[in-house]
Write a structure and sequence with these properties.
385 residues, alpha/beta, 5-stranded mixed beta sheet, 12 helices, globular, binds zinc ion
């Protein structure tokens, strides 16, 4: 019911009953509990000029923004981004803290996350104790059901109970999730996937991630390790991937792979960023051009594989840098089209969506709000028993 109210902004009890299929009596009972718990508030109808209609104007229910403050945190390769929102989803303050080291021991990473959160709270004059819940989005293999990280390019160790580590520093609800899933969440709630039930988000940054939305829900797989598009194999005994295996797609498409290739093949000053590599290719540098072209061809093969497996309505290619144009050129789309099983129906739409780091944090915050809401409701139900 909280999600229905969140989606509508303000909604009358009778309309909640219609939307959720619950009886009006049940809606009245639950809303009384939510009002008492301080999670929602009543919104009085505005006085309207007489319309000739009879009956009392309806009181609507809306979320109480000040009920909770929630943080969304994205751990990237070179920075940690924090966004604090209220229970209604209003953005209160955000902060970006640069990281000196990309890979860290779990304790070191936890310290960095807490420091970034403290700096953000200070910036917004919010007490750390006022944060009810947070979600940390990380690249890698994450079992979100138990906040457990099997492997991440941000950690030097495998099999890390991030939830427990963070719990030693912070006294609030803690959630850890794969970062690409959080982008899928953000796209579904605020972005290009808003009115789409089945879509796929591909994230391109240091590595390559994927979020799969089926029937409006994120699909995670049995162990929480599904949708690892970046680690699908595209070459037998191929290039070394940061996961330790060979021939993964991201070992041909990820930022690190392209810069590694440029370093290996050139004696001259090599580009330090994908932006520089793209600029060199545009200026006619043959080596830079061939590296980006191969990345595009590998990506086309990956896209075709996704369409052949999932047949989604939409594929959103999302990234934090706008220099991924080389992955969605007309040639890449044409190669993809040729590798897709041929039927007499239009191909899924493939669109590009370049957002900043804040997108990831926003997805993380939205996920944490959902989880905190669910915990509040569970507590209410348990109290009622
Ligand atoms: Zn890999």
């Amino acid at each position: 019911m909280l999600e229905t109210i969140r989606a509508q902004g303000a909604i009358a009890r009778i309309d909640i009953a219609r939307e959720t299929g619950m009886s009006p009596a049940t809606v009245t009972a639950i809303s009384a509990e939510l009002l008492e718990a301080g999670l929602i508030r009543e919104v009085q109808p505005e006085a309207k000029p007489t319309t000739g209609k009879r009956g009392r104007p309806r009181v609507s229910l809306a979320l109480r923004g000040d009920a909770h403050k929630i943080a969304g945190i994205k751990v990237a390769h070179s920075s940690i981004t924090v966004l604090v929102i209220d229970f209604e989803g209003n953005e209160l303050v955000d902060h970006d803290m640069p990281l000196v080291q990309a890979r860290m021991e779990p304790e070191q990473l936890c310290n960095a996350i807490v420091t970034a959160l403290e700096q953000c709270c200070r910036k917004g004059s919010i007490g750390l104790a006022d944060i009810s819940g947070l979600c940390v989005g990380m690249a890698g293999l994450v079992d979100a059901t138990r906040n457990f990280v099997y492997w991440s390019s941000s950690l030097t160790s495998r099999n890390v109970d991030m939830g427990a580590h963070l719990g030693q520093h912070l006294n609030c609800a803690i959630f850890v999730e794969n970062d690409a899933n959080l982008v899928a969440k953000a796209e579904h709630l605020f972005g290009k996937g808003r009115d789409v039930s089945d879509f796929i988000v591909i994230t391109i940054e240091h590595g390559v991630g994927m979020g799969v939305v089926i029937d409006d829900e994120i699909y995670r797989g049995t162990r929480g390790c599904g949708a690892e598009f970046g680690h699908t194999k595209v070459q037998l005994s191929g290039a070394l991937c940061q996961c330790g295996q060979r021939g993964c797609l991201e070992a041909y498409v990820g930022d690190y792979a392209l810069l590694r290739e440029a370093r290996l093949l050139s004696d001259e000053a090599t580009p330090q960023s994908i932006g520089q590599l793209s600029a060199a290719a545009r200026e006619g540098d043959a080596l830079a051009g061939s590296i980006l072209e191969r990345a595009g061809r590998m990506f086309a093969m990956g896209l075709a594989n996704i369409i052949n497996i999932f047949d989604p309505e939409l594929i959103i290619v999302s990234g934090t840098h706008s220099s991924m144009d080389y992955l969605l050129t007309p040639q890449v789309i044409e190669e993809m089209r040729q590798s897709v099983v041929q039927v007499d129906a239009p191909l899924p739409e493939v669109v590009q969506h370049s957002w900043g780091q804040l997108m990831w944090a926003k997805g993380a915050a939205a996920y944490a709000v959902e989880k905190v809401s669910a915990q509040c409701v569970r507590r209410l139900v348990l109290d009622a028993v």
